[in-house]
Amino acid sequence: MKFETIAIHAGTKITDTHRPAVQPITLATTFEHHEDSVIYSRSSNPNRNALENVLAKLEHGEVAAAFSSGNAAGMSVFQALEPGSHIVAPDDMYHGLRNQLLGIFAGILDVDFVDMTNPQNVKNAVKKETKLIWVETPSNPLLKISDIKSICEIAKEKNITVVCDNTFATPAFQNPILLGADIVMHSTTKYLGGHSDIMGGALVGKTQNEFWDKIRNVQISGGAVPSPFDCYMLTRSIKTLPYRMKGHAEHAGIIATYLENHPNVEKVYYPGLKGHDGFSIAKGQMTGFGGMLSFLVKGDAVKADRVISRLQFFTNATSLGGVESLIERRAASEGADTKTPQNLIRVSVGLEHLDDLLDDLNVALE
Ligand SMILES: *Cc1c(COP(=O)(O)O)cnc(C)c1O
Fold first, then answer.
1. Which among 25, 162, 199, 327 could disulfide-bond with 314, CB atoms 3.0 to 4.6 Å apart, if both were Cys?
2. Which domain holds residue 252?
3. pTM score
4. DSSP letter string, 144-188
């Protein structure tokens, strides 16, 4: 099956004798004991099984685990590690997961943050206790590109697990497992959900090995699982993911070029621009450049806030990946200790008509 067909058909696992055309929502928390049956909804339920099936197939993995948020998915990986394990993580990492490592896991896990745009930095950071390399590409919010294949080769030599946060690229444009990663992570709150109305996270494993069994145990015993309704919603959204992503990437590419040529813009971060540091690696490992971009407004935070306040179709809000365009001055969301430039604006380019988006930006940037 091709990607578009998987997205539509792999999320349906009907057991109902009426044979509905789409997976019904099964709200039951418990199921009558019989052979091969689902037992209790924290362990598994028909909607989560259907969702995990489509997620695994989209990312070319053998197994998938769905969670109640992207952060819960990420935390499950960290919880599955032995105390004292060392992690190599990117210096531009989703701040919520970075904060988990520095806060919740302080004293339990040891972490070094490195600039992964150069794989040599990863190699240099690896030590005897390294059990996990965490990759995020394109990264949030600087759209840094890391070479997944090269990093996986470094990891393989030392038997280190590689997890790749694929939230920005989505399986429409990048399949880390095909490039050597062991596990793919998603905040399904973003593009997979696609309409800013579902919280969720997911992990997809290349194979069901010992480490995966530990993750599965954290999912089931920890219990940060999505509801049947959320699983249903997400499975429904995934059906249009391939076509939504084409639109997001087309719009983002054009807007990135527009911004690059604007006199009031200092710099644009979009991996599809030829001048982007990671352009050639992105071109090699992605089939599209995605719908996220960031740019620096000429001036300070006040100037950037003024641009945002003048926009009509870009809502000033955090999060990303929905059909509606969102924009934010990222440093304001990341808190006091952020390294993100104060004049950086992050854009989640939506699926409104491109002319309306360009007109809006034109007025705001005047
Ligand atoms: C949003 C996000 C997360 C966290 O996901 P939640 O669903 O908000 O918990 C992790 N990684 C990236 C890249 C994200 O954008």
1. 327
2. 241-364
3. 0.97
4. ----HHHHHHHHHHTT-EEEEE-TTTHHHH--GGGGT-SEEEEET
